[in-house]
Automatic annotation (TrEMBL):
Its EC number is 3.5.1.1. It is an enzyme of class 3 (hydrolase). This is asparaginase. It comes from the Eukaryota. It holds the Pfam family Asparaginase_C. The lineage of its organism: Eukaryota, Fungi, Dikarya, Ascomycota, Pezizomycotina. GO terms for molecular function: asparaginase activity. It comes from Colletotrichum siamense (Anthracnose fungus).
Amino acid sequence: MVNITSQILTSPSNKFSPDLLRDGLPRVDIVYSHTGSDGAIVRACVAAGARGIVSAGFGPGLGTPAEIAAFGEAIEDSNGQVTVVQSSRLGAGVVVDSKQHQKLGIIAGNDLNPQKARILLALCLANSWTHDQIRKTFELA
């Protein structure tokens, strides 16, 4: 490679501050859906102090009915202090924002896999972002 230069086309809107990570990131757990899941894992994550949960659901990002109910309970019982993001355990594909998820306050993870969704959610929570700010961030991810 000869005569290659880099160009900065845009600058970040916010400067990253390492102070954000001084106390570590908030606890965000990943719950993998499986046939017959009764939501006990979701309740255990909340009891262990999770501030966020990423659901790695079936196909288009769906959990079992019991899991979905447990996610809704986690959000409601915590007065919004627990944030849930729905992703998919498949290799590719988009999780859309369903009416059921909107009703329960579950955020669609777009096309992020569970691991990437977990990191993004932890960073959002570390910044003390609101539910709407987090939802918009995942819409753009």
